[in-house]
Every structure is written in C-alpha cells, then in structure tokens.
Amino acid sequence: MHSDEPVAAKTWPARDNTGPQAAVRRLALETEGACMPSDYDGIRSDNIRRRGEDFDDIGRLISERLYSDRTHFIYELLQNAEDAGAFRAAFRLLPDRLEFRHYGARPFDQRDVEAISDVLRGTSKDDPMKIGTHGIGFKSVFAFTKMPEIHSGGEHFRIEHYIRPYEVEAIALQPNETFMMFPFDHPDVPPQEASRQIAERLTTLGARSLLFLDHISELDYEVEGGTLGSYKRVDAAARSPRHVKVQGKVQGARTDSSDPEVEETWLLFDRDVRGPDGTPTRPIHIAYRVEQDRRSGHQRVVPSPDAPLAVSFPTDQRTDLGFLIDGPFVTTSARDNVRLDEEANHRLADETAELVVESLRRLCADGLLSVGVLEAMPLRSPEADRYARGLLRPVHARVKRALEDEDLLPTSDGHYVRARNAKLARGRLTLSSNGRAFSKRVTCSWRVVSYLNPISRRSGMQSPASYHRKTLPSSCVQLSKAISPIA
After folding, report:
1. Which residue of 72, 120, 222, 313 has the fewest C-beta atoms within 10 A of its own C-beta?
2. Where are the alpha helices (DSSP H) in 406-473?
3. What is the full DSSP assignment across 19-77?
C-alpha cells in the first residue's frame, strides 16, 4: 500500500531568466497566475477512491505491456498536442530526461488534469473529430518515468503512481506554451538506455508524420550532442484534392549523410464519412506522391513503396499499396495497429475504395492518370492475395472493376481506354471496338491488361517479353516487371 505523501521531486536546472524572452515568460506567468490551479488533492483522492490504493500493477500493465514498442509514447504526445489544437511541437532529449513542448493549443484546465491523471477519461473520446479515444495514451510515458511533470496555463503539477497529481512550483511559460518533462527515473530502464531508445524513435519520425494532421505543421527535435531534426508541412489549398508539401532537415551525428534533407509533395483527396450513429468523424484521406518530370516539366504520380495505413500517424498495418491511406479507423488500445475484427473498419474500407476510384477519375480528368498511378494500385502479385483476404479487399475489387469498365488506362496519344477494349497484338497493345483494331498503343503493360481482361488471357497471346522490347514504351517494360497477372 502506498503512502499518499508525495515523493521528493528532483530539482532540474533553472531556465535562463535574463533577456527579452525571459521577460515575455515572466509576463505570461503573471497573466496565467490569475488562473486558479485545479484541486489536485481532490482529484488525487477521487482517483484513489475509484481506482484503489494500489494501482501500480495495472498502471505498469498499461504503460509497459500494452505497447509493443516502449517509445510509441512519442506519438501519444503528438496526438494529444494535435487534439488540443497545437500548431508546433518540439522534443528535447537530454541524458537524464525528455522535454516536450507544444504551442498554440488551449492551456490545460481541470478537465484535462482529471483526464491525464486517470485512465479511460480522455477528453477526446467524446469528440469523433479527434484522434485519441481510449483515455490511456498518456500512461505510456510511464514506461520511462515515474513522475512526469506538466506545466500549462495555470496548471503546474506532476503525476505519481500513475493517477496521483501533486502541485509543483510554477515555471514561466511562453504564451500558449505547454511544457512537459519526463525524468528518466524508471527503476528498470537506466537513463542511458532510455535516452538511446528515444533517440532512435525521434530520428525516425520523418516529415510524413505531419502529412495528415490538421493543426501541427511544425515539428522539431533535438538530441543533446547528437541530432537536430526539423519538419514542416505546407498546404497549398483547403479544397480536395490539395497539394501538401512536407519538408525535413536533419543535422548531426545520427544523420544519414546520403539524405539529410527531404522535400516531398503529395496530392491529397478526402471523403467525409460518418460513424455508425451518423455523427461526422474525421474524413478519409488518400495521398499520392507527385514529382516533376524532368523531361516534360509536368507533374507525375510516383508510387510510394512504404505505405502503412495511417490513423493520423502511421500504424504497423501494411497496405502493400503505392499510395497512403489515412482515416478514423478503430485501432487497438495501443493505437499502433488497426482492428481487423471491427465492423466500423470494414465500412471505412468500403468508403476508401470509393474514394480511390473517385481519385482515379479526377486524375484522369486532370491528365495525371499515368503508369505511375497504375503501379500504385492493388494489382500486383503476390500482394494481390493479401488484398483479396485483408481489410482493404474492397479497394482491390473496386479498382479492378473501375479499370475494366471505365476509360482509365492511358494511351500513348493522351487518351484513355477501358481494359475491356484493350487487346494485345504482336508485342504492343491496341484498342479494339466492335472488332475493329486501332493503332494507338496503351501506355501500360500487357500484364495489367492481361490481369484486367480475361479475354486477353484466354487468347493465348504472349507477354511483350517474348517480342522486341524496343517496340514498347519504356514505362511498359518497367511496369511489366512490377505487375503480374493473377491465375
């Protein structure tokens, strides 16, 4: 049984209280000082009454056993900041602690203190437009610390034994700043090991972590004596589809010197969806990576081979697609994966399939539906077997039907044809309509049409590999290596 006496808190080095920034912080502290802090004693007593004197075993289970990766709490912190409306977030990793700041969000109030000090009382679970719903995410920080400390608005407190908040000395904050500190005092994880694991996670965040967020557009991290990382998202327009640019720059000892800077442009399509009760939820997004063609100067879609399913942040769920999917899928409690047994997720998969087909039509209308788009579609084998059995089976089926029935295969003269009207003839693809052959070639491989058009498969026609490859556009040869027909 634990005593309700607070554990002696470690004193950390004070901030620099000189200069103009310190003056701003002092003014902010004076302003926030007018806000009464929460009743920490009352919250603590209520939590103990409801959860019991000895909550450590349950708390340890949640923080250390629920997550396959201890460092997943980094995403939990970002999720909380996103749900609070922050526009910027920053991590600072020191040998004995991790500091996390976010800016622009509303400050903590008593409801937030109650939620973060308890379990199953998250403030996001009643808001379907927010990411967090389980009310246990913050507890993941206890995998590395015993006493996280939080400063926001007029709230200055630390949490002990998972559910017991205690008031701490107030510190000066910048306007709209929330500051959290996590000392590495876990008995089973030495500070050096904690620092190493967290550094590895921070250096793999990547610019794409910002792609599907609504609020956080800037993310920075600093590993003392190591790496500095800075990421930014720029939205070109608010309507769908919209171009979103993500940029990243990494410097320091841990940097992969071959790629210290990254800049990617994505074309995002979205579709509004509703929950089972008809309540609007976060929309579904799909994102195609686009690049500028060096020869023509025009934009073109390129497949992205590493495309996990995202619920605002990447999950461990593979899609085997060449584009990104994000949506309000129901996740596991750890939020690192998507529940395959959840009926709501299968409804979202159906909605996603419709959005993918809508995007193909729009790309076609805009002249962007190219071989690169087809390479990103769920047509490959052996991945096709997983498409047919998995959560995203509707995407596979719906795309196949659309390419069969609609003019969505690009031709060499800039037009489009449906797979039913594409036929292979002597190493090249020609269009046929009412039995009449045309000389225009389809700028995609025989294997795509062979997969989509059973008539071509049964006709005994051979793969272009059996003919002179020089008669085919180079994109056809490239695509024929990536896409195989399904027997």
Report:
1. 120
2. 446-452, 454-458
3. HHHHHHHHHHHHHHTTSPPP-HHHHHHHHHHHH-S--HHHHHIIIIIS-SSGGGHHHHH
CA 467, 472, 475, 479 dihedral sign is: negative
pLDDT value of position 431: 39
Domain boundary pick from 202, 231, 252: 202
Closest CA to 55 of 167, 159, 207, 128: 159
Residue 285 lies in a domain: no
- Residue 383's SS3 state is helix
Q: What is the mean pLDDT of residues 57-83?
A: 77
- Whole-Å CA distances, 307 to 214, 312, 342, 428: 20, 13, 22, 32
CA angle centred on 307, ends 302 and 312, rounded to 5°: 115
Interatomic CA distance for residues 327 and 347, integer angstroms:
11
Q: Which residues lie across from 155 on neighbouring strands?
A: 152
Given 202, 227, 248, the domain boundary residue is 202
pTM for the whole structure: 0.78
Q: 388 is written with which tokens? A: 């047919």
H or E element: which one contains 357? helix 343-365
Q: What's the CA gap between 277 and 401, in Å, rounded?
A: 30
302 domain residue, yes or no: no
| Structural domain contains residue 468 | yes
Q: How far apart are CA 409 and CA 411, in angstroms?
A: 7
The type of residue at 315 is: T
* One-letter amino acid of 73: F
State which residues form the domain around 81. 19-202
Q: Please give the single-letter amino acid code of residue 432.
A: S
For residue range 457-475, list pLDDT tens digits in order. 444 333 333 322 223 333 3
Q: Are 93 and 169 in contact (CB under 8 A)?
A: no
CATH number at residue 173: 3.30.565.10
The number of distinct structural domains making up the chain is: 2
- Closest of 164, 157, 117 to residue 138, by C-alpha: 117
11 part of a folded domain = no
d(CA 155, CA 151): 6
Tens-digit pLDDT profile for residues 283-306: 999 999 999 888 878 888 999 887
